[in-house]
Amino acid sequence: MNRLHLALRPLFFVLIALACGCDKDRAASSGLPTIQLQIGNKSFTLEVADNDRDRKYGLMRRDSMPADHGMIFAFDREAPLSFYMKNTRIPLDILYLDHAGKIVSIKQMKPYDESSVRSDEPAQFAIELNKGTADAVGAKVGANLSIPSTLRAKD
Fold first, then answer.
1. 53: burial class by Cβ within 10 Å (0-12, 13-18, 19+)?
2. Which of 33, 36, 54, 148 fits a disulfide with 49 by CB distance 3.0 to 4.6 angstroms?
3. Torsion of CA 30, 36, 37, 43, to 10 degrees
4. Given 3.20.20.70, 1.10.3300.10, 3.40.50.300, 2.60.120.1140, which CATH number is that of 28-151?
């Protein structure tokens, strides 16, 4: 039995490693729900931060993010929004969107920069992507994105 146990040990570790890395719907093991959203000419998997705790933590303490991933921050109503990069290691683009999904601002944010990056107009959503992605996919101020109804305000 010891030989069998020793022979199966490497297989056990391989199975554990595979089980930890195969959940594609859980971006970066955050446990947050995800949505698919077309931005410019590309589809993205966006983690949803729709409560105070998740919005506050955001993308902090991550070393990287897949090129086709990001995070959408959903708020109950439109207001001037402001984000900063406390404990955020990844340079990011941020797209601010109004209640209808129209992009009202696109900005870039630097890692660990705690200065505020404000929306140019009131916004209800903010989407963070890897730096340079907004330009690469053709996202433009004034473009409309199809925000799922599940993220819109519950009046």
1. exposed
2. 54
3. 100
4. 2.60.120.1140
Which residue ranges make up each domain of the chain?
28-151
DSSP 26: S
Cβ atoms of 124 and 88 within 8 Å: the answer is no
pLDDT tens over the chain, length 155 residues: 556 455 555 544 433 443 444 333 334 467 899 999 999 999 999 999 999 999 999 999 999 999 999 999 999 999 999 999 999 999 999 999 999 999 999 999 999 999 999 999 999 999 999 999 999 999 999 999 999 988 875 44
What is d(CA 155, CA 71) in angstroms, rounded to the nearest whole number?
Answer: 24
**Neighbour-count burial for 75-93, b at 16+ CB within 10 Å, e otherwise:** beebeebebebeebebebb
Euclidean distance between CA atoms 55 and 40, whole angstroms: 24
What are the tokens at 39? 């931005």
Residue for token digits 């297989």?
A: 11
Calculate the alpha carbon distances from 118 to 10, 44, 82 in Å: 51, 23, 4
